[in-house]
Amino acid sequence: MTRYTVEFSRAAEKALAQLQPQMRRRVDGAIQVLSIDPYPPNSRPVKGTNTFRLRAGDYRIVYRVDHGVLTVIIFDIGHRRNIYRKF
Predict the structure, then answer these.
(1) 52 close to 45: Cβ distance less than 8 angstroms
(2) Looking at the whole model, is its pTM more than 0.85?
(3) Rounded distance between C-alpha atoms, residue 81 and residue 84, angstroms
(4) Domains defined along the chain, listed by start
């Protein structure tokens, strides 16, 4: 089975560090799924961009997949009401 490397942008690292511990564990679990399957069933494309979003409760993980080097790049993590304003 091919595994993808997961990389974080500075904004994503900062957002993850600021989450409550319980939500951080939930988001971490979703990120671990991305290393195995970059397009899990609950991921959707973000309209008008070449990025995807993954739902983790009320939070969203916005990412892009680079198949050439088997990498998932996480751009941002945020609450669903605020995350899409950045794109």
Answers:
(1) yes
(2) yes
(3) 7
(4) 5-86 (3.30.2310.20)
